Amino acid sequence: MRRGGAASLLALLATGAVHAQAVSDRGLSYTLYGTPGLIEMPSALSAKDGQIAATIGGFDGQVRTTFTFQLLPGLSGSFRYSRIDDYTLPGSEGQIEDYFDRSFDLRYRFNDETAILPAFAVGLQDFLGTGAYGAEYLVATKTFGDKLRVTAGLGWGRLGSQGGFDNPLGVLSSEFDERPGLDFGEGGTFAVDQLFKGDAALFGGMEYAATDDLTVKVEYASDAYERETELELIERDSSLNYGVVYRPLPGVQLGASWLYGSELAFTGTFLIDPSERPFGPGLDPAPSPIRIRQGDARAASTWDRAVIPEATIGTALQQALAAEGVELSSIQLSDRAVRLRYTNTRYRAEAQAMGRIARMLSLGLPDSIERFTLEPMQRGVPLSAVTLNRSDIETFSDTAGGTQALSERLVLTDAGPAAGLVDLPRVDDRFSYGLAPYARITVFNGDDPFQVELGAQISGRYEITDSIVASGTLRQQLYTNRENPELVVAEGDEPYPVRRNAALYADQGTTGIRDLTLAHYGRAMPDVYTRATGGYLEEMYGGLSTEVLWKPADSRLGLGAEVNYARQRDFDLGFGFQDYDVVTGHASAYYDFDNRFYGQLDVGRYLAGDWAATVTLDREFENGWAVGAYFTLTDVPFEAYGEGSFDKGIRVSIPLDYVVGQPTRREASTSLASLQRDGGAKLRVDGRLYEVVRDGHLNDLDDGWGRFWK
């Protein structure tokens, strides 16, 4: 699947928010910290399962940008990037200056609110960062009628700094009585010794839904803003905050508030429900009808090949399926069965392509053919074999519950051998190209939080065979706001700067080759897939990448291995290379959990020669949305790694068809990284096998089977 960059992602986020469904609970709104709550204080509310919220908020001297995802019905996570003007963390050295902070939150709601009991939740704020906003809390929220909601909580850390009292957890252990001083260090580590320690304080507030679109709030805040008042960044004259939230459009919230008797604050939140389709079932062209055979026709044992030659059937099917975005590569016909190998180039759900193919087969095949075996391919590699009975398709095509009944009767196996298949001449052009603008946005990067690069690129692709593909991209930069980046040289125990000099490629490679590769995909044996890619693999590295993957079609588990030889490219993005080279590789395990959660573990050697392990967990939705998180722990010490201590972040993928409504497999993806440095850095290679292969396997087919008749 083709992937775009961060700019495409941000544009689609804004567009998708307009299409998002309104929150069913009109009282649910977001704080200045980008989490469900009052104004600055949290509540025990949770958003709808899977909902995404992007919030920007702030007041004089502070701006907070937060991405919040409802991972599970009761569990949410947030990634925040903040700027505090003229601020220095306690205990850190140096002059007071603008400070950029990255932080992560987790919140867990224990129960749903009932007629008697409130909802209860526990939260960790900035538990994986510098701790500048570090806090923990227990909170309860209760709704009265359909307009009033009351919240009360107990906070620690920042939320225990105003009106604080002895920690009630001190009855369990004296270790809870004192909160250790913040050790800034390199940041990014889990400050276990801070959690729920030190003074505690009460906070709370009320929300009143004046109308369906307007909510009024008041809160008692337990954050003393000790450091900010010490630096005279804020005047804290009151613990009462007042605010309003207005919803001009579904999925859009605008807020204004008066903080601490001295500060005027504003927020804007875009809400997206990735489980919904803004265009309902979509704007797909209507599928062809199912042709129902008569009873005597079903009983036929053969057909007259003099009247309907096999070659005619193959050619006609190929042309008909091409109109459906399906490239038919080969066919095997007998009196009672047909087997097809094809590539779905249009539909995100492989099951939807199968439904379109089944309809065409019912229209165009002789009546005696009863068994349809469909073998989807990607990059010339067959992924599986799905066998359907034509009589079942006819029976369940217009029956309540027919989709589920048909799924229970299909047979899924590994793809069969090539023997018996007749190759069909390609009707499409093997060469394709395109000219398009590009935008690359880098956010949350150290002291330069927003870097943009704009330009134009021409991409070309030539399919030498179905499984051997040459491709490349030439870029021309037209604008960038990057300012004269300096060459980074490793000092002391620091790893070689395998990624920290990325800005030099944008600075010197204004006209250059982004990538230029030759890739081969294959199957070594049943359930075993292979890939070899050589050339200029990405902007910064060229070389050779090889991969093997074991992934049975009916298994949740996949195991893979990858070995790469990489050499650093010249900064001008030409054909030259620098002296640095490295052999990298890793063993990988993939697992498909329930509810479309996908886990991945990579263990091996990374670009800086360090040994590391990366853990990734993604949640994907039936319509193509995906949100995930990852972290990498490496043998590079936190001090040598530098700011951030280790690699971690959030990645988001938005399907283009979600926005435009028309079927397409294209998507825009990006990572919201805490801070990318050199430890734990992986080679970027297009078309890694697991993403290519799994579309045609059991769980993905099951998840998308509801679109078989679409």
Write a brief caption for the model.
The protein has 710 residues and is mostly beta strands. The protein has twelve helices and 35 strands. The strands form four sheets. A 14-stranded mixed sheet has the order 1-35-34-33-32-31-30-29-28-27-26-25-24-23. A twelve-stranded antiparallel barrel has the order 2-3-4-5-6-8-9-11-12-13-14-15. Strands 16, 17, 18, 19, 20, 21 and 22 form a seven-stranded mixed sheet that branches.
Explain the overall architecture.
This protein is mainly beta. The chain has 3 domains: 252 residues, Porin (Beta Barrel); 133 residues, no CATH class; 243 residues, Porin. It is 13% helix and 43% strand. It contains 12 helices and 35 strands. The strands form 4 sheets. The chain has a 14-stranded mixed beta sheet with strand order 1-35-34-33-32-31-30-29-28-27-26-25-24-23. It is globular, with a radius of gyration of 28 Å. The N terminus is likely disordered.
